[in-house]
Protein backbone atom coordinates (compact mmCIF):
# COMPACT_ATOMS: atom_id res chain seq x y z
CA UNK A 1 0.00 0.00 0.00
CA UNK A 2 1.34 3.44 -0.94
CA UNK A 3 1.08 6.40 1.43
CA UNK A 4 1.41 10.03 0.38
CA UNK A 5 3.79 12.04 2.59
CA UNK A 6 2.09 14.40 5.03
CA UNK A 7 3.11 17.98 4.24
CA UNK A 8 3.51 20.23 7.26
CA UNK A 9 1.38 23.33 6.74
CA UNK A 10 2.99 26.70 6.25
CA UNK A 11 1.92 28.88 9.19
CA UNK A 12 1.13 32.49 8.34
CA UNK A 13 1.53 34.15 11.74
CA UNK A 14 0.18 37.60 12.54
CA UNK A 15 2.56 39.72 14.63
CA UNK A 16 2.66 43.22 16.11
CA UNK A 17 5.50 45.59 16.84
CA UNK A 18 5.71 44.70 20.53
CA UNK A 19 7.36 41.43 19.48
CA UNK A 20 6.75 38.18 21.36
CA UNK A 21 4.27 39.91 23.68
CA UNK A 22 1.86 39.90 20.71
CA UNK A 23 2.13 36.13 20.16
CA UNK A 24 0.12 33.32 21.69
CA UNK A 25 2.01 30.35 23.09
CA UNK A 26 1.20 28.22 20.03
CA UNK A 27 2.21 30.98 17.59
CA UNK A 28 5.53 31.41 19.39
CA UNK A 29 6.07 27.65 19.31
CA UNK A 30 5.52 27.58 15.54
CA UNK A 31 8.02 30.39 15.08
CA UNK A 32 10.70 28.82 17.27
CA UNK A 33 10.34 25.44 15.55
CA UNK A 34 10.40 26.83 12.00
CA UNK A 35 13.16 25.77 9.65
CA UNK A 36 12.37 28.55 7.18
CA UNK A 37 11.09 31.95 8.30
CA UNK A 38 9.83 34.45 5.71
CA UNK A 39 9.07 38.06 6.54
CA UNK A 40 9.78 41.70 5.85
CA UNK A 41 13.11 43.24 6.84
CA UNK A 42 11.76 44.96 9.96
CA UNK A 43 9.75 41.93 11.09
CA UNK A 44 12.69 39.52 10.74
CA UNK A 45 14.82 41.89 12.80
CA UNK A 46 12.11 42.22 15.46
CA UNK A 47 11.89 38.44 15.99
CA UNK A 48 15.53 37.55 15.34
CA UNK A 49 16.01 36.23 18.91
CA UNK A 50 13.11 33.77 18.49
CA UNK A 51 14.28 32.25 15.20
CA UNK A 52 16.29 29.03 15.58
CA UNK A 53 20.01 29.51 14.86
CA UNK A 54 19.97 26.95 12.04
CA UNK A 55 16.78 28.18 10.41
CA UNK A 56 16.82 29.76 6.96
CA UNK A 57 15.50 33.31 6.62
CA UNK A 58 14.05 34.93 3.50
CA UNK A 59 13.28 38.64 3.22
CA UNK A 60 10.12 39.15 1.16
CA UNK A 61 10.63 42.91 0.80
CA UNK A 62 10.37 43.57 -2.94
CA UNK A 63 10.11 39.84 -3.62
CA UNK A 64 6.47 39.02 -2.88
CA UNK A 65 5.95 37.16 -6.17
CA UNK A 66 8.70 34.69 -5.20
CA UNK A 67 7.21 33.73 -1.82
CA UNK A 68 4.82 30.99 -3.08
CA UNK A 69 7.72 29.20 -4.79
CA UNK A 70 9.89 29.51 -1.67
CA UNK A 71 7.11 27.82 0.30
CA UNK A 72 6.56 25.06 -2.29
CA UNK A 73 10.28 24.26 -2.41
CA UNK A 74 10.57 24.18 1.37
CA UNK A 75 7.52 21.94 1.75
CA UNK A 76 8.91 19.61 -0.91
CA UNK A 77 11.97 19.27 1.34
CA UNK A 78 9.68 18.64 4.34
CA UNK A 79 10.75 21.87 6.07
CA UNK A 80 8.57 23.64 8.63
CA UNK A 81 7.74 27.11 7.26
CA UNK A 82 6.50 30.26 9.01
CA UNK A 83 5.55 33.51 7.26
CA UNK A 84 5.47 36.57 9.54
CA UNK A 85 2.77 39.09 8.65
CA UNK A 86 1.77 42.30 10.40
CA UNK A 87 -1.53 42.24 12.30
CA UNK A 88 -4.25 40.04 10.85
CA UNK A 89 -2.79 38.33 7.73
CA UNK A 90 -6.29 38.14 6.22
CA UNK A 91 -7.02 41.88 6.60
CA UNK A 92 -5.31 43.45 3.57
CA UNK A 93 -2.42 41.10 4.32
CA UNK A 94 -0.35 38.43 2.63
CA UNK A 95 -2.57 35.46 3.53
CA UNK A 96 -5.12 36.02 0.75
CA UNK A 97 -2.31 36.37 -1.80
CA UNK A 98 -0.68 33.10 -0.72
CA UNK A 99 -4.00 31.25 -0.46
CA UNK A 100 -4.76 32.12 -4.10
CA UNK A 101 -1.43 30.70 -5.26
CA UNK A 102 -0.97 27.69 -3.00
CA UNK A 103 -3.20 24.74 -2.22
CA UNK A 104 -5.46 25.87 0.63
CA UNK A 105 -4.51 22.74 2.57
CA UNK A 106 -0.88 23.88 2.43
CA UNK A 107 -1.35 26.89 4.72
CA UNK A 108 -2.74 27.75 8.14
CA UNK A 109 -3.43 31.30 9.22
CA UNK A 110 -2.62 32.24 12.83
CA UNK A 111 -4.33 35.66 13.11
CA UNK A 112 -3.58 38.57 15.38
CA UNK A 113 -5.30 41.87 16.09
CA UNK A 114 -5.28 44.10 13.01
CA UNK A 115 -3.45 47.40 13.38
CA UNK A 116 -6.68 48.98 12.12
CA UNK A 117 -8.51 47.52 15.13
CA UNK A 118 -5.75 48.77 17.41
CA UNK A 119 -6.01 52.30 16.02
CA UNK A 120 -9.78 52.29 16.57
CA UNK A 121 -9.24 51.04 20.13
CA UNK A 122 -6.81 53.86 20.88
CA UNK A 123 -9.47 56.42 19.90
CA UNK A 124 -12.45 54.49 21.28
CA UNK A 125 -14.08 54.26 17.87
CA UNK A 126 -16.29 51.22 17.15
CA UNK A 127 -15.11 49.60 13.94
CA UNK A 128 -17.90 47.20 12.99
CA UNK A 129 -19.31 49.70 10.48
CA UNK A 130 -15.96 51.05 9.31
CA UNK A 131 -14.68 50.53 5.81
CA UNK A 132 -11.23 48.97 6.05
CA UNK A 133 -9.02 50.13 3.17
CA UNK A 134 -5.39 49.96 2.15
CA UNK A 135 -2.92 51.98 0.10
CA UNK A 136 -0.09 49.73 1.26
CA UNK A 137 1.31 49.38 -2.25
CA UNK A 138 3.86 50.98 -4.54
CA UNK A 139 4.25 54.75 -4.69
CA UNK A 140 1.01 56.09 -6.18
CA UNK A 141 2.11 59.69 -6.58
CA UNK A 142 -0.05 62.60 -5.47
CA UNK A 143 -3.67 62.49 -6.56
CA UNK A 144 -4.70 64.55 -9.60
CA UNK A 145 -8.41 65.20 -10.16
CA UNK A 146 -9.80 62.93 -12.87
CA UNK A 147 -7.05 60.29 -12.55
CA UNK A 148 -7.87 56.87 -14.08
CA UNK A 149 -8.44 53.63 -12.15
CA UNK A 150 -4.75 52.71 -12.47
CA UNK A 151 -3.84 55.41 -9.93
CA UNK A 152 -2.96 53.88 -6.57
CA UNK A 153 -5.31 56.18 -4.63
CA UNK A 154 -8.31 55.73 -6.96
CA UNK A 155 -9.98 52.93 -4.99
CA UNK A 156 -9.45 54.76 -1.71
CA UNK A 157 -11.14 57.92 -2.99
CA UNK A 158 -14.07 55.83 -4.21
CA UNK A 159 -14.36 54.33 -0.72
CA UNK A 160 -14.17 57.79 0.88
CA UNK A 161 -17.02 58.98 -1.34
CA UNK A 162 -19.21 56.04 -0.32
CA UNK A 163 -18.51 55.57 3.39
CA UNK A 164 -18.79 57.63 6.56
CA UNK A 165 -15.97 56.02 8.54
CA UNK A 166 -12.75 54.52 7.23
CA UNK A 167 -9.62 52.91 8.64
CA UNK A 168 -6.71 52.96 6.20
CA UNK A 169 -3.42 51.07 6.06
CA UNK A 170 -0.78 53.41 4.65
CA UNK A 171 2.75 52.89 3.34
CA UNK A 172 6.02 54.86 3.48
CA UNK A 173 5.07 56.47 0.16
CA UNK A 174 1.27 56.68 0.37
CA UNK A 175 1.29 58.67 3.57
CA UNK A 176 -1.38 60.44 5.66
CA UNK A 177 -0.36 63.84 4.29
CA UNK A 178 -0.82 62.54 0.73
CA UNK A 179 -4.31 61.29 1.64
CA UNK A 180 -5.10 64.68 3.20
CA UNK A 181 -3.95 66.48 0.03
CA UNK A 182 -6.27 64.26 -2.01
CA UNK A 183 -9.21 65.28 0.19
CA UNK A 184 -8.29 68.95 -0.26
CA UNK A 185 -8.04 68.51 -4.04
CA UNK A 186 -11.47 66.85 -4.19
CA UNK A 187 -13.17 69.47 -2.01
CA UNK A 188 -13.74 66.99 0.83
CA UNK A 189 -11.45 68.55 3.44
CA UNK A 190 -14.22 70.23 5.43
CA UNK A 191 -16.38 67.12 5.54
CA UNK A 192 -13.92 64.79 7.29
CA UNK A 193 -11.81 64.61 10.40
CA UNK A 194 -8.54 62.68 10.40
CA UNK A 195 -6.55 60.90 13.09
CA UNK A 196 -3.20 59.20 12.60
CA UNK A 197 -1.92 56.38 14.82
CA UNK A 198 1.86 56.26 14.61
CA UNK A 199 4.15 53.37 15.57
CA UNK A 200 1.48 51.27 17.25
CA UNK A 201 2.86 48.94 19.96
CA UNK A 202 6.27 50.63 19.82
CA UNK A 203 7.85 52.85 22.50
CA UNK A 204 7.30 55.90 20.29
CA UNK A 205 3.57 55.27 19.77
CA UNK A 206 1.58 58.48 19.23
CA UNK A 207 -1.98 59.39 18.25
CA UNK A 208 -2.37 62.65 16.32
CA UNK A 209 -5.88 64.07 15.94
CA UNK A 210 -7.82 67.32 15.99
CA UNK A 211 -5.88 68.87 13.10
CA UNK A 212 -7.28 70.72 10.12
CA UNK A 213 -7.05 68.74 6.90
CA UNK A 214 -5.05 71.55 5.29
CA UNK A 215 -2.52 71.25 8.12
CA UNK A 216 -2.38 67.45 7.86
CA UNK A 217 -1.68 67.86 4.14
CA UNK A 218 1.68 69.45 5.00
CA UNK A 219 2.55 67.43 8.10
CA UNK A 220 5.09 64.57 8.28
CA UNK A 221 4.08 61.45 10.23
CA UNK A 222 6.20 58.68 11.70
CA UNK A 223 6.08 55.34 9.89
CA UNK A 224 4.42 52.87 10.24
CA UNK A 225 1.04 54.48 10.75
CA UNK A 226 -2.68 53.99 10.30
CA UNK A 227 -5.19 56.66 9.23
CA UNK A 228 -8.74 56.97 10.56
CA UNK A 229 -11.26 59.16 8.73
CA UNK A 230 -14.80 60.01 9.76
CA UNK A 231 -17.39 62.41 8.42
CA UNK A 232 -18.19 65.50 10.42
CA UNK A 233 -21.38 66.20 8.47
CA UNK A 234 -23.99 63.70 7.31
CA UNK A 235 -24.30 63.03 3.60
CA UNK A 236 -27.69 64.09 2.26
CA UNK A 237 -29.68 61.34 0.52
CA UNK A 238 -28.83 61.23 -3.19
CA UNK A 239 -31.22 60.83 -6.10
CA UNK A 240 -30.16 57.62 -7.82
CA UNK A 241 -31.39 58.29 -11.34
CA UNK A 242 -32.99 61.01 -13.46
CA UNK A 243 -31.30 64.22 -12.30
CA UNK A 244 -33.06 67.44 -13.40
CA UNK A 245 -31.38 69.55 -16.07
CA UNK A 246 -30.97 72.41 -13.60
CA UNK A 247 -28.59 70.24 -11.56
CA UNK A 248 -25.97 70.74 -14.27
CA UNK A 249 -24.19 73.96 -15.15
CA UNK A 250 -24.62 74.67 -18.86
CA UNK A 251 -22.95 76.97 -21.34
CA UNK A 252 -23.93 80.67 -21.28
CA UNK A 253 -25.26 82.60 -23.12
CA UNK A 254 -25.99 79.53 -25.30
CA UNK A 255 -27.67 77.68 -22.43
CA UNK A 256 -29.00 74.32 -23.41
CA UNK A 257 -25.97 72.30 -24.60
CA UNK A 258 -27.12 69.33 -22.55
CA UNK A 259 -28.87 66.03 -23.13
CA UNK A 260 -32.29 66.78 -21.69
CA UNK A 261 -33.62 64.81 -18.74
CA UNK A 262 -36.10 62.67 -20.69
CA UNK A 263 -33.61 61.77 -23.43
CA UNK A 264 -30.83 61.22 -20.92
CA UNK A 265 -32.97 58.80 -18.91
CA UNK A 266 -33.80 56.68 -21.96
CA UNK A 267 -30.22 56.78 -23.23
CA UNK A 268 -28.81 55.64 -19.88
CA UNK A 269 -31.41 52.90 -19.69
CA UNK A 270 -30.44 51.64 -23.15
CA UNK A 271 -26.76 51.51 -22.12
CA UNK A 272 -27.59 48.63 -19.71
CA UNK A 273 -25.15 49.83 -17.06
CA UNK A 274 -23.97 47.87 -14.05
CA UNK A 275 -22.21 49.15 -10.96
CA UNK A 276 -18.87 48.05 -12.50
CA UNK A 277 -19.37 49.31 -16.07
CA UNK A 278 -16.64 51.12 -17.98
CA UNK A 279 -18.28 53.89 -20.02
CA UNK A 280 -17.11 56.19 -22.82
CA UNK A 281 -18.78 59.59 -23.21
CA UNK A 282 -17.84 61.05 -26.59
CA UNK A 283 -18.77 64.69 -27.11
CA UNK A 284 -19.44 65.32 -23.43
CA UNK A 285 -20.97 68.81 -23.75
CA UNK A 286 -21.95 69.77 -20.19
CA UNK A 287 -21.14 66.25 -19.04
CA UNK A 288 -24.68 65.29 -17.99
CA UNK A 289 -24.77 61.75 -19.46
CA UNK A 290 -21.27 60.80 -18.38
CA UNK A 291 -21.60 62.23 -14.89
CA UNK A 292 -24.93 60.53 -14.26
CA UNK A 293 -23.44 57.29 -15.60
CA UNK A 294 -20.54 57.68 -13.15
CA UNK A 295 -23.03 57.91 -10.28
CA UNK A 296 -24.71 54.70 -11.43
CA UNK A 297 -21.41 52.86 -12.08
CA UNK A 298 -19.94 53.53 -8.65
CA UNK A 299 -17.41 50.71 -8.98
CA UNK A 300 -16.73 51.49 -12.65
CA UNK A 301 -15.26 54.45 -14.50
CA UNK A 302 -16.34 56.96 -17.14
CA UNK A 303 -13.90 58.24 -19.77
CA UNK A 304 -15.14 61.47 -21.37
CA UNK A 305 -13.85 63.63 -24.23
CA UNK A 306 -14.92 67.11 -25.31
CA UNK A 307 -13.32 69.34 -27.96
CA UNK A 308 -14.61 72.72 -26.67
CA UNK A 309 -12.40 74.18 -23.93
CA UNK A 310 -15.22 76.15 -22.31
CA UNK A 311 -17.40 73.05 -22.14
CA UNK A 312 -14.51 71.09 -20.64
CA UNK A 313 -14.32 73.63 -17.83
CA UNK A 314 -18.08 73.28 -17.27
CA UNK A 315 -17.79 69.48 -17.09
CA UNK A 316 -15.02 69.78 -14.50
CA UNK A 317 -17.10 72.14 -12.37
CA UNK A 318 -20.12 69.85 -12.64
CA UNK A 319 -17.95 66.88 -11.62
CA UNK A 320 -16.66 68.73 -8.56
CA UNK A 321 -20.11 70.02 -7.57
CA UNK A 322 -21.57 66.51 -7.76
CA UNK A 323 -18.74 64.92 -5.79
CA UNK A 324 -17.74 62.43 -8.49
CA UNK A 325 -14.26 60.95 -8.74
CA UNK A 326 -14.71 57.96 -11.10
CA UNK A 327 -14.81 60.24 -14.14
CA UNK A 328 -11.93 61.43 -16.30
CA UNK A 329 -12.11 64.13 -18.96
CA UNK A 330 -9.90 64.61 -22.01
CA UNK A 331 -9.86 67.91 -23.89
CA UNK A 332 -9.64 66.87 -27.53
CA UNK A 333 -11.45 65.70 -30.62
CA UNK A 334 -12.34 62.02 -30.87
CA UNK A 335 -11.00 59.59 -31.95
CA UNK A 336 -7.73 61.14 -30.74
CA UNK A 337 -6.85 59.85 -27.28
CA UNK A 338 -9.34 56.98 -27.21
CA UNK A 339 -6.62 54.36 -27.76
CA UNK A 340 -5.45 54.81 -24.15
CA UNK A 341 -8.88 54.13 -22.65
CA UNK A 342 -9.97 50.79 -21.21
CA UNK A 343 -12.35 48.79 -23.42
CA UNK A 344 -15.91 49.92 -22.67
CA UNK A 345 -19.06 48.14 -21.59
CA UNK A 346 -21.11 51.04 -22.96
CA UNK A 347 -20.45 54.04 -25.19
CA UNK A 348 -22.50 57.22 -25.55
CA UNK A 349 -21.96 59.52 -28.52
CA UNK A 350 -23.55 62.91 -28.07
CA UNK A 351 -21.29 64.74 -30.52
CA UNK A 352 -18.94 63.43 -33.19
CA UNK A 353 -17.16 66.47 -34.59
CA UNK A 354 -17.67 65.21 -38.15
CA UNK A 355 -15.96 61.86 -37.50
CA UNK A 356 -19.10 59.81 -36.92
CA UNK A 357 -18.47 56.93 -39.36
CA UNK A 358 -14.90 56.45 -38.07
CA UNK A 359 -16.08 56.60 -34.46
CA UNK A 360 -18.79 53.98 -34.99
CA UNK A 361 -16.30 51.58 -36.58
CA UNK A 362 -13.81 52.12 -33.75
CA UNK A 363 -16.39 51.73 -30.99
CA UNK A 364 -17.81 48.49 -32.40
CA UNK A 365 -14.26 47.05 -32.43
CA UNK A 366 -13.51 48.13 -28.86
CA UNK A 367 -16.84 47.37 -27.15
CA UNK A 368 -16.81 44.39 -24.80
CA UNK A 369 -19.04 41.45 -25.78
CA UNK A 370 -22.73 42.36 -25.44
CA UNK A 371 -21.79 46.01 -24.79
CA UNK A 372 -24.00 48.82 -26.07
CA UNK A 373 -23.40 51.84 -28.28
CA UNK A 374 -26.01 54.58 -27.78
CA UNK A 375 -26.06 57.72 -29.94
CA UNK A 376 -28.22 60.86 -29.91
CA UNK A 377 -28.94 62.90 -33.06
CA UNK A 378 -31.04 65.95 -33.81
CA UNK A 379 -30.25 66.20 -37.55
CA UNK A 380 -31.43 63.94 -40.36
CA UNK A 381 -27.96 63.99 -41.92
CA UNK A 382 -26.21 62.54 -38.84
CA UNK A 383 -28.97 59.97 -38.45
CA UNK A 384 -28.37 58.89 -42.05
CA UNK A 385 -24.60 58.60 -41.55
CA UNK A 386 -25.11 56.56 -38.37
CA UNK A 387 -27.53 54.08 -39.96
CA UNK A 388 -25.36 53.69 -43.07
CA UNK A 389 -22.26 53.09 -40.93
CA UNK A 390 -23.99 50.50 -38.77
CA UNK A 391 -25.21 48.69 -41.89
CA UNK A 392 -21.69 48.74 -43.32
CA UNK A 393 -20.36 47.21 -40.10
CA UNK A 394 -23.01 44.49 -40.15
CA UNK A 395 -24.27 45.59 -36.74
CA UNK A 396 -27.69 44.97 -35.25
CA UNK A 397 -29.30 48.33 -34.54
CA UNK A 398 -32.55 50.13 -33.81
CA UNK A 399 -33.77 53.71 -33.79
CA UNK A 400 -36.12 55.43 -31.37
CA UNK A 401 -37.52 58.90 -32.04
CA UNK A 402 -38.27 60.67 -28.79
CA UNK A 403 -40.14 63.96 -28.60
CA UNK A 404 -41.12 65.28 -25.21
CA UNK A 405 -43.49 68.15 -24.49
CA UNK A 406 -43.38 70.12 -21.24
CA UNK A 407 -46.13 72.19 -19.66
CA UNK A 408 -45.62 75.96 -19.60
CA UNK A 409 -47.85 78.68 -18.12
CA UNK A 410 -50.00 80.80 -20.37
CA UNK A 411 -51.94 83.46 -18.48
CA UNK A 412 -53.73 81.54 -15.69
CA UNK A 413 -53.56 78.25 -17.58
CA UNK A 414 -50.90 75.92 -19.03
CA UNK A 415 -49.99 74.80 -22.52
CA UNK A 416 -47.67 72.06 -23.81
CA UNK A 417 -44.41 73.21 -25.43
CA UNK A 418 -42.63 70.64 -27.57
CA UNK A 419 -38.90 70.00 -27.26
CA UNK A 420 -36.90 69.23 -30.41
CA UNK A 421 -37.24 65.61 -31.51
CA UNK A 422 -34.20 63.41 -30.83
CA UNK A 423 -33.25 60.14 -32.51
CA UNK A 424 -31.71 57.58 -30.18
CA UNK A 425 -29.74 54.99 -32.16
CA UNK A 426 -28.58 51.85 -30.37
CA UNK A 427 -26.32 48.98 -31.44
CA UNK A 428 -24.93 46.01 -29.50
CA UNK A 429 -21.46 44.53 -29.78
CA UNK A 430 -21.37 40.97 -31.07
CA UNK A 431 -24.89 41.18 -32.53
CA UNK A 432 -25.29 40.93 -36.30
CA UNK A 433 -28.11 42.34 -38.35
Q: What's a quick, concise take on this entry?
A:
The chain has 433 residues and is an alpha/beta fold. The protein is built from 13 helices and 19 strands.
What is the straight-line distance between the termini? 64 Å
Low-confidence stretches: none
> What is the average per-residue confidence, as pLDDT, rounded to a whole number?
93
Count of helical regions = 13
**Biggest β-sheet: strands ordered side by side in the sheet:** 13-12-11-14-15-19-16
As a percent range, the share of strand residues is 15-25%
Q: What structural class is derived from the secondary structure elements?
A: alpha/beta
Estimated radius of gyration? 28 Å
> How many strands, which pairing sense, and closed or not: the largest β-sheet?
7 strands, mixed
The helical percent reads 25-40%
- The rough form would be described as elongated
Number of strand segments: 19
Structural description of this entry:
The protein has helices spanning 25-33, 41-46, 67-76, 94-99, 115-123, 154-162, 176-185, 213-216, 261-270, 288-296, 309-322, 356-366, 380-392; strands at residues 10-15, 36-39, 56-59, 81-86, 107-110, 131-134, 165-169, 192-198, 206-208, 225-231, 278-282, 301-306, 327-331, 346-349, 372-377, 395-402, 405-410, 413-418, 422-432. Helix 12 packs across helix 13. Helices cover 28% and strands 25% of the residues. By secondary structure, it is α/β, with parallel strands linked by helices.
Amino acid sequence: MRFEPVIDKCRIVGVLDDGIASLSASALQHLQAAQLVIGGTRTLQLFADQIAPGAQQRDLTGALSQVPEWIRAAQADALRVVVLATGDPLCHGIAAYLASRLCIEAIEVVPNVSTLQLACARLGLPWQEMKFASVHSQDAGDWVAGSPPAHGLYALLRDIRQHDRLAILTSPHNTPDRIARMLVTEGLADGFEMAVAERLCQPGERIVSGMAMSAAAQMPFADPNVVLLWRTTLRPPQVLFGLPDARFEQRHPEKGLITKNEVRAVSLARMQLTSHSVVWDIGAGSGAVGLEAARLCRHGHVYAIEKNADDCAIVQRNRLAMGISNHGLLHGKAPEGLHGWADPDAVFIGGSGGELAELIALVLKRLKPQGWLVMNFVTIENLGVAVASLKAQGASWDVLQLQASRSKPILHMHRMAAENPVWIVCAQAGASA
